[in-house]
Amino acid sequence: MDTRSNDRGRLYLCPTPIGNLGDITERTLETLKTADIIAAEDTRNTLKLLNHFGIRTPLTSYHEHNKYDKAAELVDSMLAGKTVACVTDAGTPAISDPGEVLVREAVGSGIDVISLPGATAFVTALTVSGLSSRRFVFEGFLPREKKERRALLEEIRNERRTMILYEAPHHLRTTLSELTGSLGEARRIALCRELTKLHEEILRMTLGEAVSYYKGTEPRGEFVLVIEGRPAEEIEEEKRIGFENISLEEHVRQYEALGIDRKEAMKKVAVERGIPKREVYKSLL
User: Contact, 202 vs 192, CB < 8 A?
Assistant: First the structure.
């Protein structure tokens, strides 16, 4: 049954399989069939998927290099009553993907946006990593610009949540080396390669071991890197060691310079140094 009359003027985000074609949902297939147009990251790849399922909906190209102009064009179509289905090459649109721009423009124009459940590489990787999934942060691909990249690596050095990155095979060795330099060799990592595909592989090791492993092994396939967050105890110990370089008086004055009264400043210093408050009071008196 054709349900397009009920769905006009909307944007659907349609997840596509990240490897196994059987992972596409019936709802996604129905939406792709009944949409007026499909906006695809690579029309050649999407055409193969559509042909496999016998879908004849018209395709238009929507990718990183035309995302702004094409988003405006697609929004105009939706305002005119057309239903647009957005797909990426693999996974959920708008996750490390130009679909993010289309969603923003559609929302800004008052268009309904419906995201369909489906395959997402970073969720799949997180759940099989063996690392904590209670709290995590998704960083996507690391920036390629050196200054921005260094800043992000420094920012995540003390990240306590599990971290998830995407990486291409030809950049993997460099990325692992930089992560090791920032986070240390002992930090645990799960390298998830070719997820849901025939040669799926999950390697669980430390960053130091990963660097050594890929010195003798050629990286192949797309990677999701799931990295252990920094233990709170390690962060606190580093702070305590750092405090050894300044006196209690100097430490208290740092807080006073921020407008904190002396009594509260002394309490904070005691907590940060892991010492009794009376020891701070006695030293300053």
Answer: yes
60 — phi, psi (to 5°)? -135, 150
Q: pTM higher than 0.70, yes or no?
A: yes
In a structure prediction context, what are the per-residue pLDDT tens digits for the chain, which is 285 residues long? 344 444 459 999 999 999 999 999 999 999 999 999 999 999 999 999 999 999 999 999 999 999 999 999 999 999 999 999 999 999 999 998 999 999 999 999 999 999 999 999 999 999 999 999 999 999 999 999 999 999 999 999 999 999 999 999 999 999 999 999 999 999 999 999 999 999 999 999 999 999 999 999 999 999 999 999 998 877 777 666 666 667 788 888 888 888 888 888 888 888 877 788 888 877 776
Does residue 16 contact residue 90 with C-beta atoms inside 8 Å? yes
What distance in Å separates the CA atoms of residue 108 and residue 27, rounded to the nearest whole number? 26
Local structure of residue 6 (DSSP, 8 states): H
Give the largest CA-CA distance in the chain: 83
Cα–Cα dist 74/83, whole Å: 9
Domains of the chain: 4-119 (3.40.1010.10), 122-230 (3.30.950.10), 233-284 (no CATH)
